[in-house]
């Protein structure tokens, strides 16, 4: 497993601490991993959606020709 070092604004760090303390996550590392997984998942969905929109636009243009 890779190790990353990050700097967070104090307010964000406090929110992260609160999420861990309230039991949402077992640790800060778990919270960060979850956030990165969510980010990557949304990014993949955004790319897929854009590809589909591009395909639809291409098909509509081809049908007009």
Question: How would you describe this protein?
Answer:
There is one protein chain. The chain is built from 2 helices and no strands. The chain has helices at residues 10-21, 28-64. The termini are far apart. The model has no long low-confidence stretch (mean pLDDT 93).
Poorly predicted runs are none
Shape: rod-shaped
Helix content: over 70%
Q: How would you spell out the order of helices and strands?
A: HH
Strand tally, please?
A: 0
Give the biggest sheet. none
Number of helices: 2
Mean pLDDT: 93
Using only C-alpha atoms, the radius of gyration works out to 20 Å
Structural class: mainly alpha
| Residue fraction in strands | under 5%
Straight-line distance between termini? 53 Å
In short:
With 65 residues, the chain is mainly α. The chain has helices at residues 10-21, 28-64.
Which keywords apply here?
65 residues; mainly alpha
SSE topology sketch:
Layout: H1 10-21, H2 28-64
């Amino acid at each position: 497993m890779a190790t990353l070092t990050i700097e967070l604004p104090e307010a964000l760090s406090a929110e992260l601490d609160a999420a861990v303390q309230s039991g949402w996550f077992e640790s800060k590392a778990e919270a960060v991993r979850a956030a990165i997984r969510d980010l990557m998942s949304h990014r993949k969905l955004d790319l897929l959606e854009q590809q589909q929109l591009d395909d639809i636009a291409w098909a509509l243009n081809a049908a007009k020709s």
